[in-house]
Write a sequence for this structure.
């Protein structure tokens, strides 16, 4: 029975679902991650305080029944800020990594598939990007474009792009000589079609695994940029920004830096569960002996 | 091999040039005036204008660029606008500590990361694996500066084993090592978290290879199979990753250097950027790019050592 | 079962040369692999031409170059009376409807992430082979042609056995109604019983559709069974060609002879006869001078080490490139300097 | 790498080393006429002398006493001054005796915009003449509010040695030569600056042999180093938490000293709706000055009293600042036609204390419906952008030479309006007190001068050109082992003066 | 074949855990291997040749696999033997050559050392001694300039040479039994001919028995003394080589022989076996070939036929209820 040609989205959804339920590790990761997302989405319901409300006489309070995780140096409720911070941190992490993933994998596939001068060019550009420490890159982008969340995302994405170029390029080069890609040429498919419909879908597991790893890093880079004062605009809470603030009082109030770090840990943990699970689920050899 | 190295360096000239140009253009288009940074907020506009002329900042950007390139071609990277120090001297003064820290962290990271990763792979899905993976997650989510301070509090203040701030001037090798220990541990342990992951997955892959089966079929005991066959192969992709990580170590250790108060290239670059100290920024970026290139070269060579299939005959 | 006699050239390659830059090791000087060295061959209408030789001798390169999947360094390619050596990509893509290829490895030649239906429908769509509405029917028809059940359409390649996959690959090639198919070791990866099934299918298509094949293989038995003529390659050069029976029953070139002797025959009595095989295939990076085969040739003489033997007509549609052939007293044939 | 492991050079047991931890990544310019950052001024204070000086430990002109000049006279009209130099003062490192020539050179240098950041302070100087080896005459073209004030060991008043400055030219910043108690020894980028005692110091050789001035940007690291005794003097954070933590350490004295930095929110009148006085008043009513002082710590902060920092010559609290009254602020906003509040764009530096203060203000103003959209930029960009008039509010912290004129001229005279030629730092486009400020500058009668300044302050406050918030002291933690040898109330250099008597156990 | 069998396999069944259930990939494999004998194991891809071999070396096992039945090496039971014991047998008593010479060698270890490793592990001799012996074997498999190439890495050798290294490695401790799992499948015909000749020589000289796995009947003809034909996890026919080729009795064997085009003569008709080999999960309880068998009856579907002489000579056994009649051998 021939199947209808359309519904590419449906197909993708089905594929995703199949992968998502491939093993318990992925499932656990996804549940945990969704939990964090839920916290972000329902932040106003979960937070116990207004995350922006300062109480100048209650600064640096230790955890208590009133403030579960204590207060920061402006007397704001840390728990509520972590809850609300999930929003921005996730948005930053997700958008930066998605951007880097899309741009990076496209460039990687392009350079790996076409080879020649395109490859040279992309390779050089990647090297140049890699030659900038991500902190400097961030500093420059933000100094150049001005501070905003979009630019912050751009900075983190820019620093991450080379990684995806590399991840995408290597398997593309290997795929290029595979018969089924050769067959595409033999069948007269255009290079673009071949790349988008045949190469990309076959390397995306590797890219996806990479993305789960870098999402964590992206959230952390925000902390580094916040550390040199270039995070998201205050008073918006972000985990990175909170770590930075916490760091200034680290000798008196250690928890200020620790709690947001733990929040990152939860996300990193969830993503790594997904990443590890994916790696196993998508690796046929590992799947066999399951 | 020497030929290869030289060729590689020659090939990297365009990269170097591109980085230079990029840095030059970027620093000129971002707002901020070095004269203001130097003279301070009370400086009169005349004084600022005068300094502009003195520093050559009044000329068109392209002329500054050509001038700069011409100087670089003569090996002259100029002087710091702020302190008047020669850029080359500045770079030379921080290079040792940067290299020291980089190498030390590298050693720590590999020495801890590789065995842990291998151990986890061998005991896949059991206790050691879970431990290593959890530990490496912790390493992946803790920012270096937080981790650094924690180490400082425990090992320097509580236990008093190491100094809080690095000693300066001429110090004994031992003291130098003591001062190096904590920063190197900070960067090294965080790196180990990463290395362990890579080693683990590489090891898992190698353990499925045919030649492992061959070795077992020869009757080689399992431990020996691991050591002589699996580990030696698993290390190969780790070399690449370590090479990539080198860049991170050299450039992104700014915050660690700040916490441990060590001089370093990254710190200097950030400082130069915030001060709009153009010559220093440019010069250091050249040095930094060169270091990255050399690091890549060394990675290639190391890769050749570990992987005979790409080795020279 | 023998197809009608060939009607004249369909696909021709003249003096094709193709070199690859070998993967360079650190700092080593560039090295070039001469995958094709002045190779000329012709596939006639409705003819099946076999191409045999050892691994790495350039068989696939020849096949792919003829299809312009690889660009030749020198030489020209003619298809159906048209010089397509420099055809523009657009024109080439149109030509691909008539020129197809089947690959050796049935596991690697299908996109693992596409169902059979998607794989086949995509080709039909891209080439506008038929109106969109008719695509499902057309796919079903193709599956039927290669002997697969209609239910196969919805499944992914991994759900098929090697033989079935090879059928899908064939169906894909047939979807555009080609005149010529390059079968690059299309049956080498298959077990004998499945190999027989596929050969049967290819033969049937030849009958029904009047297809021509360039049939690449290293199995002399299969070539002898399936092809009318065969070409033997050694290290990027053609050493001998001719009708299969004559070629394998009475090889003229020492290499063909060696191949023939080394090819196992399922007959324990015959097989135990000692084979005369010496030496290894030299590296294509540094092929020996003169006749490439001389280091392994039991009969090699001085001239073999220095001069490249010319291709000579040996009568009966046979060509051979061997210095010794002349010495065997067939002088008076086309001479060469 | 080998270079880093060079042999130890053991300090002799008797050597007295003072280790100072400074909150900076590196030193800037150690040229007294160019030094702008606190980290530089602290060092300049140890290396140089002025013709006169403020008594060590004090920070106001009330305590002016002789330094390189033993005595001085002035003409009746106050336009000509003659200074008699101390004999036998030696420049560092053998650059010879300090004479009238050096004074002439120094002052000319300080007045030269090409070589000095403070040239405008010496605009009124007509001529400097070396009468003889030990006598200098300075002629002014107009009356100057405080002649001696600009000849103290502060900014342009610091005396450099001519021979050294001329010989080294631009390198002088790397190798400063003065006459102070300590002289330059060596500099390691990002690490430290080492000074050694000037054996020929005119007040006698300092008891401290060496000062190691360490650059430690991370507060936590600096504090831990102090706690462990790896440094003796720690540049502190002007913050309650820091103060109370460090105060609890044993053998530690924490000092909060003048000069303070006044934190002022300049309101840009040229940006609507800030051209509306009611809106500006609303902002003024919304700032809880006392709460902010409590928040930052009463030990290290004091509430602003006027638009000029407390204690500056001419400062007066005659006109009270607007009290905290959020209800009134809301009402004013409503009156002005903004019942739903306003939104202001604020360019803000990423530097610590400034940023904290702004964030607190943001949180407080939010309560009355004033929403601050903070654009956090790094410091250089901040300076560039506020000078391009890009911010609605500018939070600025500054310490100046402590007379009212410096503050008023730089921040409230329309000649200094940002975006105009000759601009310095009038971010608010304030012009209500131009007449008084300018008249006071050349007024010879001190009483009248004070009156003019008072009127100026009144007008500025009433017009709400700015909202002064609080003043932060310089805070230092000093180990008990350090014996200063004088009473410390303040220091214009913002550092801890080290006099010959200062010692360490 | 005289003497006690060196290897005796009885009722061997290898099971894999697939989708939660244990499925038998092979069932009831029985065969003996006499001293000095070469037994060829032929059959289509996936019929269980490799796992049979691997279980003889005790390389299977662990979480996803289970071995049942009995494998006796000179009287000692291998199934269930502890790993430490197995390690002493592997390489020394029973050695194995793998199919892929490209991947069977450790790419980062010099080939000489890989050969010497087995020697030093089993014979406990010094490095130098091991090297001497290893060199001896390298020469024996005709690696030219062996001493110079001792320290070379696998990638520096051609496929044929690599396969010879693998053979040298297997020979290094002079095992009694050599398990050769498709040692020539990846090689060119000319190289294959050389390797086969070498293996024959070695077996003869070292008095070794060999189990030779292949799916090429041409190769079987060239090397084997006896042949076992496997189909879907079972041995369907086992006979001396000449007899099997001359008078195959199992319908599968017959079909197989008819499906091979020959070089040496005109093949007029090539008869393909219709249908597919069933997947492990689809194995029925009866004769596994029945669905494709032209002679299949209902009885075939019910019970698995046993491997038995069925009227033929004792050495020629077949697992078919309706085998082809025994023919007079045309000598
Ligand atoms: N893309 C390529 N880059 C470099 N060398 C190549 C490339 N493709 C083929 N070669 C080399 O060209 C030579 C001929 O290769 P080709 O694939 O045509 O041989 P073949 O006869 O088809 O061999 P096989 O039987 O192994 O398929 C070989 O030495 C091969 O290594
Ligand atoms: N680890 C495993 N888990 C599950 N099934 C397995 C495993 N290993 C082998 N099999 C299955 O067992 C069957 C026999 O495999 P085996 O490798 O012995 O075949 P073979 O006869 O050697 O084939 P080939 O000629 O392809 O090497 C196959 O169907 C295979 O898929
Ligand atoms: Mg090929
Ligand atoms: Mg097998």
């Amino acid at each position: 029975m021939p199947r209808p040609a359309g519904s590419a989205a449906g197909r993708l959804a089905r594929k995703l679902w199949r992968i998502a339920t491939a093993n318990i590790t992925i499932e656990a990761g996804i549940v945990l991650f969704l939990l964090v997302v839920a916290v972000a989405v329902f932040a106003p319901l979960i937070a116990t305080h207004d995350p922006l409300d300062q109480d100048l006489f209650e600064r640096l309070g230790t955890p208590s029944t009133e403030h579960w995780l204590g207060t920061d140096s402006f007397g704001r409720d840390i728990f509520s800020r972590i809850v609300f911070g999930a929003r921005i941190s996730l948005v930053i992490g997700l958008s930066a990594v998605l951007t880097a993933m899309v741009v990076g994998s496209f460039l990687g596939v392009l350079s790996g598939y076409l080879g020649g001068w395109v490859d040279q060019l992309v390779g050089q550009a990647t090297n140049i990007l890699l030659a900038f420490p991500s902190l400097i890159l961030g500093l420059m982008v933000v100094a150049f474009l001005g501070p905003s969340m979009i630019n912050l995302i751009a900075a983190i994405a820019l620093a991450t792009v080379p990684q995806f170029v590399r991840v995408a390029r290597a398997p593309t080069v290997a795929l290029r000589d595979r018969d089924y890609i050769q067959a595409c040429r033999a069948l007269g498919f255009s290079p673009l079609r071949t790349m988008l419909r045949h190469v990309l879908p076959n390397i995306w597991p590797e890219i996806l695994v990479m993305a789960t790893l870098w999402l964590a890093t992206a959230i952390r880079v925000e902390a580094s940029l916040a550390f040199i004062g270039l995070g998201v605009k205050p008073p918006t809470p972000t985990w990175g920004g909170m770590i930075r603030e916490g760091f200034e009082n680290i000798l008196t109030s250690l928890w200020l830096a620790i709690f947001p770090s733990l929040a990152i840990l939860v996300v990193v943990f969830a993503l790594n569960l997904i990443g590890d699970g994916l790696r196993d689920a998508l690796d046929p050899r590992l799947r066999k002996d399951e | 091999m020497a030929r290869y190295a030289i060729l590689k360096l020659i090939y990297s000239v365009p990269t170097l040039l591109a980085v230079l140009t990029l840095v030059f253009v970027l620093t000129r288009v971002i707002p901020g005036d070095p004269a203001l940074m130097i003279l301070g907020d009370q400086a009169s506009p005349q004084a600022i204008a005068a300094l502009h002329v003195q520093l050559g900042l009044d000329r068109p950007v392209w002329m500054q660029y050509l001038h700069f390139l011409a100087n670089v071609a003569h090996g002259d990277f100029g002087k710091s606008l702020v302190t008047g120090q020669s850029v080359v001297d500045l770079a030379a003064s921080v290079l040792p500590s940067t290299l020291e820290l980089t190498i030390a962290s590298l050693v720590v990271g590999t020495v801890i990361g590789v065995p842990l990763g291998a151990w986890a792979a061998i005991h896949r899905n059991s206790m050691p694996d879970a431990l290593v993976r959890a530990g490496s997650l912790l390493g992946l989510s803790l920012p270096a500066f937080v981790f650094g301070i924690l180490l400082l509090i425990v090992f320097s203040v509580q236990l008093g084993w190491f100094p809080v701030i690095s000693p300066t001037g001429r110090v004994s090798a031992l003291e130098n090592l003591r001062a190096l220990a904590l920063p190197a541990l900070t960067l090294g342990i965080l790196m180990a978290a990463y290395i362990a992951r890579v080693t683990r997955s590489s090891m898992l892959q190698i353990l499925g290879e045919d030649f492992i089966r061959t070795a077992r079929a020869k009757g080689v005991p399992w431990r020996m199979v691991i050591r002589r066959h699996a580990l030696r192969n698993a290390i190969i992709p780790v070399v690449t990753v370590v090479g990539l990580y080198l860049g991170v170590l050299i450039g992104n250790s700014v915050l660690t250097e700040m916490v441990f108060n060590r001089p370093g290239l990254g710190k200097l670059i950030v400082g130069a950027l915030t001060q709009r100290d153009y010559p220093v920024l440019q010069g250091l970026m050249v040095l930094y790019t060169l270091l990255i290139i050399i690091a890549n070269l060394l990675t290639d060579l190391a890769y050749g050592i570990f992987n005979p299939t790409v080795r020279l005959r | 079962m023998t197809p009608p006699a060939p009607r004249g050239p369909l696909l021709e390659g003249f003096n094709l040369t193709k070199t690859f830059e070998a993967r360079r090791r650190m700092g080593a000087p560039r090295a070039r692999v001469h995958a094709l060295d002045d190779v000329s061959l012709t596939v006639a209408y409705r003819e099946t031409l076999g191409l045999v030789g050892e691994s790495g001798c350039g068989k696939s390169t020849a096949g792919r170059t003829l299809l312009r999947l690889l660009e030749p360094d020198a030489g020209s390619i003619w298809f159906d009376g048209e010089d397509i050596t420099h055809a523009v990509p657009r024109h080439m893509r149109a030509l691909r409807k008539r020129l197809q290829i089947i690959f050796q490895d049935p596991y690697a030649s299908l996109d693992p992430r596409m169902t059979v239906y998607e794989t086949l429908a995509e080709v039909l769509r891209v080439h506008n082979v038929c109106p969109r509405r008719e695509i499902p029917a057309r796919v079903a028809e193709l599956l039927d042609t290669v002997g697969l059940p209609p239910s196969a359409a919805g499944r992914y390649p991994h759900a098929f056995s090697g033989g079935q996959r090879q059928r899908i690959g064939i169906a894909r090639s047939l979807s555009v109604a080609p005149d010529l198919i390059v079968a690059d070791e299309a049956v080498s990866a298959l077990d004998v019983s499945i190999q027989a099934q596929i050969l049967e299918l290819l033969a049937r298509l030849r009958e029904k559709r009047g297809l021509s094949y360039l049939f690449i293989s290293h199995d002399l038995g299969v070539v002898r069974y399936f092809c009318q003529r065969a070409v033997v390659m050694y290290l990027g050069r053609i050493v001998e060609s001719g009708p299969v029976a004559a070629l394998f029953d009475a090889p003229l070139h020492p290499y063909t002879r060696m191949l023939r002797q080394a090819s196992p025959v399922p007959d324990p009595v015959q097989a135990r006869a000692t084979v005369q095989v010496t030496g290894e295939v030299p590296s294509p990076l540094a092929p020996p001078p003169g006749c490439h085969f001389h280091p392994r040739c039991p009969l090699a003489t001085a001239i073999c080490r220095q001069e490249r033997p010319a291709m000579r007509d040996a009568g009966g549609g046979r060509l051979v490139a061997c210095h010794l052939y002349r010495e065997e007293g067939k002088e008076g044939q086309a001479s060469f300097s | 790498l080998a270079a880093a492991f060079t042999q130890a050079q053991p300090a002799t047991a008797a050597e007295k080393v003072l280790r100072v931890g400074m909150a900076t990544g590196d030193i800037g310019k150690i040229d007294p006429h160019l030094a702008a950052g606190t980290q530089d001024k602290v060092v300049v204070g140890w290396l140089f002398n002025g013709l006169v000086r403020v008594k060590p430990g004090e920070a106001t002109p009330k305590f002016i006493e002789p330094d390189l000049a033993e005595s001085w006279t002035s003409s009746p009209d106050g336009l000509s001054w003659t200074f008699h130099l101390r004999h036998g003062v030696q420049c560092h490192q053998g650059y010879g005796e300090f004479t009238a020539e050096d004074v002439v050179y120094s002052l000319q240098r300080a007045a030269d915009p090409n070589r000095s950041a403070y040239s405008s302070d010496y605009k009124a100087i007509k001529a400097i003449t070396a009468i003889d080896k030990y006598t200098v005459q300075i002629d002014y073209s107009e009356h100057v509010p405080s002649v001696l004030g600009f000849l103290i060991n502060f900014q342009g008043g610091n005396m450099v040695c001519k021979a050294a400055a001329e010989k080294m030219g631009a390198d002088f910043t790397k190798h400063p030569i003065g006459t102070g108690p300590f002289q330059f020894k060596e500099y390691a980028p990002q690490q430290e600056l080492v000074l050694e005692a000037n054996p020929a110091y005119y007040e006698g050789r300092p008891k401290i042999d060496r000062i190691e001035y360490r650059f430690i940007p991370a507060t936590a690291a600096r504090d831990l180093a102090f706690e462990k005794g790896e440094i003796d003097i720690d540049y502190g954070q002007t913050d309650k938490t820091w103060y109370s933590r460090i105060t609890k350490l044993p053998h530690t004295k924490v000092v909060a000293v003048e000069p303070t930095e006044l934190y002022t929110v300049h309101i840009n009148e040229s940006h609507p709706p800030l051209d509306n006085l009611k809106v500006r008043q609303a902002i003024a009513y919304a700032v809880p000055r006392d709460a902010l002082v409590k928040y930052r710590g009463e030990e290290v902060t004091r509430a602003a009293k006027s638009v000029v920092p407390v204690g500056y010559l001419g400062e007066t609290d005659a006109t009270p600042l607007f009290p905290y009254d959020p209800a009134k602020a809301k009402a004013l906003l409503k009156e002005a036609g903004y019942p739903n509040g306003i939104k202001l764009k604020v360019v803000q530096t990423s530097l610590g204390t400034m940023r904290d203060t702004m964030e607190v203000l943001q949180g407080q103003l939010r309560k009355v419906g004033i929403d601050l959209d903070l654009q956090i930029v790094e410091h250089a960009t901040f300076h560039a952008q506020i000078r391009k008039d890009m911010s609605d509010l500018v939070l600025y912290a500054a310490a100046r030479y402590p007379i009212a004129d410096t503050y008023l001229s730089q921040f409230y005279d329309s000649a200094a309006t940002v975006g105009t030629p000759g601009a310095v730092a009038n971010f608010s486009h304030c012009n209500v007190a131009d007449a008084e400020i300018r008249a006071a500058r050349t007024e010879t009668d001190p009483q009248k001068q004070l009156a003019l300044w008072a009127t100026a302050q009144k007008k500025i406050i009433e017009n709400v050109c700015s909202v002064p918030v609080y003043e932060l002291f310089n805070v230092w933690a000093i180990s008990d082992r350090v014996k200063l040898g004088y009473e410390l109330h303040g220091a214009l250099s913002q550092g801890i003066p080290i006099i010959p008597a200062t010692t360490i156990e | 074949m005289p003497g006690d069998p060196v290897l005796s396999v009885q009722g061997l069944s290898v099971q894999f855990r697939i989708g939660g259930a244990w499925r038998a990939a092979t069932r009831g494999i029985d065969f003996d291997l006499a001293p000095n004998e070469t037994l060829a194991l032929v059959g289509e891809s996936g019929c269980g040749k490799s796992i049979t071999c691997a279980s003889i070396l005790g390389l299977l096992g662990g979480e996803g696999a289970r071995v049942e039945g009995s494998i006796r090496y000179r009287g000692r039971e291998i199934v269930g033997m502890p790993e430490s014991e197995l390690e002493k047998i592997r390489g020394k008593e029973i050695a194995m050559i793998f199919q892929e010479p490209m991947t069977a060698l450790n790419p980062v270890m010099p080939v000489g050392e890989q050969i010497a490793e087995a020697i030093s592990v089993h014979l406990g001799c010094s490095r130098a001694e091991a090297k001497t012996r290893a060199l001896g074997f390298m020469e024996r498999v005709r690696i030219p300039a062996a001493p110079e190439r001792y320290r070379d890495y696998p990638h520096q050798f051609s496929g044929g040479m690599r396969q010879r290294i693998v053979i040298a490695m297997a020979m290094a401790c002079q095992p009694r039994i050599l398990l050769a799992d498709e040692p020539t499948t990846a090689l060119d015909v000319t190289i294959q001919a050389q390797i086969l000749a070498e293996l024959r020589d070695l077996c003869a000289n070292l008095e070794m028995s060999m189990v030779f796995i292949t799916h090429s009947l041409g190769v079987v003809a060239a090397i084997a003394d006896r042949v076992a034909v496997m189909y879907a996890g079972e041995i369907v026919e086992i006979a001396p080589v000449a007899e099997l080729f001359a008078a195959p009795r199992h319908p599968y064997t017959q079909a197989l022989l008819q499906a091979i085009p020959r070089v040496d003569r005109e093949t007029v008709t090539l008869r393909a076996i219709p249908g597919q080999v069933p997947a492990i999960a689809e194995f029925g309880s009866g004769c596994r070939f029945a669905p494709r068998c032209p002679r299949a009856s209902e009885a075939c579907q019910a019970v698995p036929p046993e491997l038995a002489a069925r009227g033929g000579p004792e050495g020629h056994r077949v697992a078919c209820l309706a085998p082809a009649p025994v023919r007079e051998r045309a000598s």
Remarks:
- Chains E and D do not touch (no CB pair under 8 Å).
- The two ends of chain E are 21 Å apart (CA to CA).
- Residues C 59-60, 184-185 surround magnesium ion (ligand 3) (CB under 6 Å).
